[in-house]
Design a protein that fits this description.
The protein has one domain (about 20-150, about 195-245): Undecaprenyl pyrophosphate synthetase (3-Layer(aba) Sandwich). A six-stranded parallel sheet has the order 3-4-2-1-5-6, sandwiched between helices. It is globular. Helix 5 links the parallel strand 3 (about 110-115) and strand 4. The chain is α/β, with parallel strands linked by helices. It contains eight helices and six strands.
């Protein structure tokens, strides 16, 4: 009976959203792991471990219902200010996830792309990133973009710097630079802008996340801490997105 009830609830939750009008790209700021742990008298690393399990659940659900792109903010350029023990715990979780992904990739067909400056990461994690991206390059399932050592301002500055270098080398002329060319120099090159950005934890800011890409994104904020973020709440966010009218600067027809 519990299994039957579980299946019923899953189908009920799916029925709350229109599966024919899903956002193409959902982005999530995975926030609140530390507060979740503190409220339970646990070390912050326990919050990150719980958050990693939520991430697995949400990513699997997005894949199953047909979301094409899922981008998650896992580690920002500012997160280096956190205690070394916490940073080490995050790297350990990432190492575990990448190893598992390599093992399951052929079956699940998930395409993984890392967005951010990987140069400062531990050597073995960099190698796992390269191997994961290499193996998943030809897969056609959901694309999972993981933002690691990522900052939106740095991403824009990096793109401008590389464009300037190409101009100085004579590969480009300043007049050649338009929005499409600029976007091709971003970490997200080839990925459509997020339709929906979700921020758990009660904060109402984007914290240097996808600053260029979020120009016309819809935002959904919730007080739920990331480890407690459920499939039901994701459906609530999608349902709210589906109730909105996106005009991209135009007017209603």
């Amino acid at each position: 009976m519990p299994e039957v009830c579980g299946l019923f609830n899953l189908f009920r939750k799916k029925a709350e959203i229109d599966l024919s009008r899903l956002p193409v790209h959902i982005a999530i700021i995975m926030d609140g792991n530390g507060r979740w742990a503190s409220r339970r008298g646990l070390p912050r690393s326990a919050g990150h471990a719980a958050g990693a399990e939520t991430f697995r659940s949400i990513a699997t659900y997005c894949r199953d219902i047909g979301i094409q792109y899922l981008t998650v903010y896992a580690f920002s350029t500012e997160n280096w200010k956190r205690p070394e023990q916490e940073i080490t715990a995050i790297w350990d979780l990432l190492r575990k996830y990448l190893l598992e992904s390599i093992q399951k990739m052929a079956k699940e067909r998930v395409k993984i792309h890392i967005m951010g400056d990987v140069g400062a990461m531990p050597d073995d994690i960099r190698q796992l990133i390269y191997e994961t991206e290499r193996l998943s390059r030809t897969y056609s399932g959901i694309q999972l973009n993981i933002c690691l050592n990522y900052g939106g301002r740095y991403e824009i500055v990096r793109a401008a710097r590389n464009l300037a270098a190409d101009c100085a080398a004579g590969k480009l002329q300043p007049a050649d630079i338009d929005q499409a060319l600029f976007e091709s120099f971003l970490y997200s090159a080839g990925v459509p802008d997020p339709d929906l950005i979700i921020r758990p934890s009660g904060e109402h800011r984007i914290s240097n996340f996808l600053l260029w890409q979020c120009a016309y994104s819809e935002f959904y904020f919730t007080k739920t801490l990331w480890p407690d973020f459920s499939i039901n709440e994701l459906n609530t966010a999608i349902a709210e997105y589906q109730r909105r009218e996106r005009r991209f600067g135009g007017i209603k027809a």
